[in-house]
Specification:
Layout (H helix, E strand, L loop, with lengths): L25 H31 L7 H36 L2
Helix pairs in contact: 1-2
């Protein structure tokens, strides 16, 4: 038998996703932040690959596989920008609601 202290047991998370309300739920905010972090790691990896292929190995920047990496990188950066804008609007909305209370 294993004995757990109260602070060792994780609290259950209530996963509420509601598209009808204008504010984001805490679960939606967590999902956005998590996705931003994951995309940032992938962006860093793609930038490293591009640097390695183009600058260090001397592949032409118009190679097909380099173009594919650039397209993926561009898509990830656009996605991250969108997530950050949504998160920023949410923070501004919350700040306004706190200000008017």
């Amino acid at each position: 038998m294993i004995f757990h202290l109260a602070y060792e047991i994780p609290r259950p998370r209530f996963k509420v996703l509601d598209s009808d309300i204008p504010q984001l739920t805490p679960e939606e905010v967590r999902i956005l932040k998590d996705q931003i972090r994951k995309n940032s790691v992938l962006i860093e990896d793609y930038v490293y690959r591009l640097d390695l292929l183009v600058n260090k190995e001397g592949h032409p920047y118009r190679e097909t596989f380099v173009k594919k990496i650039r397209e993926r990188l561009h898509l990830l950066m656009e996605e991250n920008d969108t997530f950050r804008q949504v998160l920023w609007k949410h923070v501004q909305r919350e700040a306004l609601m706190i200000q008017y209370r």
